[in-house]
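Subject: Interface between my chains keeps coming out wrong

I've been trying for a while to get a sensible model of this assembly. When I model each chain on its own everything looks fine, but I need the whole thing in one frame so I can look at the contacts. Pasting all components below, labels as-is. Any help appreciated, I'm running out of ideas.
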Amino acid sequence: MRNQRAFSATFRVLMAAAFSIILAATVLLLFAEDFRSALWQFFVEPFSSRYFFGNYIADTVPLIISGIGVSIAFRSKNFNLGGEGQIYAGALAGGVLALHAPEAFGPGTVWILVAFIGAFIGAIIGTISGLLKAYWRISEMISSYLISAIIINISDFFITGPLQDSTSNFQTTAQIPSVFLLPRIFSPSKLDISIWLALFLVLFFHILSKKSKMGFELRVCGENEEFARYCGISVRAYNIAAMAISGGMYGLSGALLVIGPQGRVMRGFSSGLGWSAISVALLAQGRETAILPAALFIAFLKAGSDHVMIGSGVPSEIISMLQATAMLFITAQVMPKLWQRQRQ
Amino acid sequence: MLPMLAVRMQGICRRYYPRGVHANDGASLEVEKGSIHAIVGENGAGKTTLMKILAGLDLPDEGSIEIEGRLVKIESPSKAQALGIGMVQQHFLIFDELSAAENIFFGIEPIRNNKISRLAGIVDSQELNTRAQQLATEYGFAIDPSAPAASLSIGARQQIEILRQLARHAKILILDEPSSVLTEQETRVLFEKLSDIRRLGHTIILVTHKIHEVMQIADRVTIMRQGRTIGTYDISATTLQKLTSLIMGEGSIEEKQEPIEKSQIDKSKIERSQKNPLVLGVDGMTVRRPRYYGIGLSDISFEVHAGEILGICALSGNGLDDLENALAAFQSPSFGTFIFDGHHIEPHNYRRYQSLFQKGLIAYLPSDRIKRGLASSLSVRDNFIALSRHDFFPKGWILENAAQQAILDAIRSFEINALPDQPAGELSGGNIQKLAIARLFSRDFPKLFILCEPTWSLDIRSAEQTCRRIRLAKEEGTAILLLSSNIDEILELSDHIMVLSRGRRVLYQKNSSLLNRAIIGEYLLGNRIHG
Amino acid sequence: MNFSPIVLIDFLKYTIAAATPLLFASIGGLFSELSGMLNIALEGLMAIGAFFGMAAAGLTSNIFFGALAAILSASLASMLMGLMINKFRTNLFITGLAINLLAQGITAVLSQSWYHTKAVVAFNISVDNHLFPRFISRLPLIGPIFFSHSMITIFAWLWVLTSAFIIKNTKHGLKIRATGSNPQAVSALGFSPDRIHMQAFLWSGVGSGLGGYALGLSISAFVPNIISGRGWIALVAIYLGRKKPLWIAASCLLFAFAESLSNYIQGFSSIPPLLVLALPYLVTLISLILAERE
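Reply #2:
Try treating it as a single job with all components included. I did that and got this:
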């Protein structure tokens, strides 16, 4: 029984992945000038050199970290749609800190401070939506989206105004001093030590949700709020906590990007990462350990899309079509007729 | 000449996938035209499934159905409707956002008489209300057609459902457990109406597990057990005892009287009197509610002492749910003082009262066992340990073995038909109730039990077991508040009885032989007041 | 800042024009909301309507064909959403998110393929603003504010009124409301809630398609991120209007007011424009809080 259910879940994930890949190939067939080279660019190029492969793995880090936050929020039936703004704000806060930190602090301290401030800012923003939901029953989806839209505008203002790097032609902050950048571990690529933190977080949240009282209570809250109250669990606290954790993870990934691969905060920094993290969490189907393959897959789609944009001129926005397909397939019940009957 | 058959079902089988459980296993049924036909049986005997199949709400895997002698296939509710079959389900299907008349005529509304209106389906709301009024008068129901359905009482909602089927010209009316939400008096009114409806030429099928109702109203009765029909009997030619033993299976009543654990009670402990310490005192409790959402409670006071059961009874919509919510720490009352074990609690420090539940001093069995008592996609085990997180997560981390052992023990001693890893939502209503009871009674007894409808949806034997457990808790010195709409249960178990009517206390006294169903019924209706 | 009467009149006129896309989308969303489905894909549906509507209008130089294409494309996407939810039992919100993403991808890919740019695609489409006789549109004050709007704005208000009537007085409206209230009861009475949901989604598609198209017409171009959150704002208008069509229309006017205010402040004051751009979202967020709390 149990195995059967686990099997059908896995099967569905694989189907979703397969279909988005088929769609990718179809889009390339229709829109790429040279189908064969586009295929190569999409499916092979990300693995073709140490540089590309390392960058591909580096792309999974923010997906893992934010994906796990989204996954935790899903578990309690909270949908945080403010990821874009939370990443942006976390990055900006972390970036400002790294730009102004005295060199005497030493890199280790600065890394910790930047990570902390990024997570903190993201958590605060998430908490606002959590509070609005807990106290006034305002849909966290809409509020988090709107707050995120406001924050993106404010952050844009800072980046193009007070924090603008006057020496650059781009809308960006200044470059963060190289001493404060995270050490790269797979040269010449941009992969840095934040991958270890990502892996640690996966393990940490896995144990927390499987074995701990908090994880159990969070599950109960997501399942049935009234039952949770009956059990004496503070639904409010968990709603707020879930939004805070997912916001915090978004903020953290933003901050790590700034002191990692990006090295500065450019306008449009988050560029769809917030939505990709949702796809990752969905593909993982609420299992923390499954975040890893899910992030690898979504990052692969992203790497592929980027490569065909450069190589074949197909817009990298195809990534959102592929993600949408994966999302639809992941929540679809494969055999609706049979299931419907038994539900009655 | 044989009487005309309205319904004839033969060899009906219905399995539920993926577990292959038989809800119906070769069931058959014959209902005479113009009769009131009862279908009785324990929980899970397949009564409701059989009726859903007849009403087109479920499809049989095998079997044939004849309506008035014609072989038919009923694959949808609309097909059933065309055949003149209508079912009033146990959970009412009312649209709160629409008016009473719109509810009754839903889908068959009168259309304004002009071309555009017919094309666009523009409803003639005046005609709609007139027709609803006519229909209600014809069958002797008192309903305001324009009233928003959200404002109606349970009884009125049921009447709307019946009228809805009559408006669709149902000649065969199926009612699933119609009295389960009604009280004695409301039930009597309903039965009178049903007799009237039969007199107008309709056939009525009544699904119930209350045998005395069957004896009271039905012409014939079909007994079901384990998905099969055991037999059909004329009421005039059978007795209550005979029906009971048929429902339970031969000889089962004596055989199943086995003692439950902890039955060796120190007899000296039972000799407690009213000098027992006060556990919960409530003084002047008032709950105010916005209009349309019930009448709330006004100025309710009572006491319950250790080793004592206070039974509290009310008709639906008379404040029992407000009382449950206030006592169970779900909704702070507007005014009033609680004294629990010497501590004073006022509305402003109601949180302190809530904390008593977490400390295990008060344990509560909710009346809505699914909405409030179940996390349906979590496992049976997780549902079981959810209330005792202090025991199973002592340092914040789970004790897997202890939890597994505990649920296995509970499944055995409470006879729950379930597996520990199964999602709890797959269980039947009776087993969900057993799980909820097991969750409370496999812990140490608290100082105060708040038990709401403890035997709801349990079969006779499990209900008896539960009553025995409640008495055991009482003998161990637990104070018990028993909130129930089942008068028999209240009379049987309680030391003191309180009755609420229109949110007020109309009876509060010691249980004695002077009280019986009829007297309590008078108080429930508010005909008598003896605050 | 210096508000002359002409600026004021212009400002009010702009407010009414800016409400047009919101009116279409939020009333469309109201249908699915009433049927019990919170449609968070309004944003994406609007984008689809805007792109295909403008493309067809550009191709045929006819705004009616554009409208037709906008309706068809957005309805198609909306039906796809309904199909996924009803037939394959996908999660409502995730499906909504997926449609939003899908819209973003499709419009970008097709824009690149058809117009060889992912940025601004300009069209030369003129919309007749002289629907009313001259003596009415020349009336002092009210003439320019109320009677010099394009056909599509007038149509938006007709759309509001017709929808209000359908919801309140027809069998169809009754079924949609009933489904939102108790879908099991609808199915027990012999109707298919799935079908009614599909019809409600169809309305959503029509409304948001036209909404997106109206937006495209107003700037006579398609740009990526043209909707920039208006789908979400339309969603909030449904709540702020307490699911009553006329109140929803009033809420749309309020949000349109905030939008034109932010445009005017950008032109007239020293507050940085990027900060001012946050104003409509802020107003929306505050009204969401005011409407939904308690």
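Reply #3:
Confirming on my end. Chain C has one domain: 5-125+142-292.
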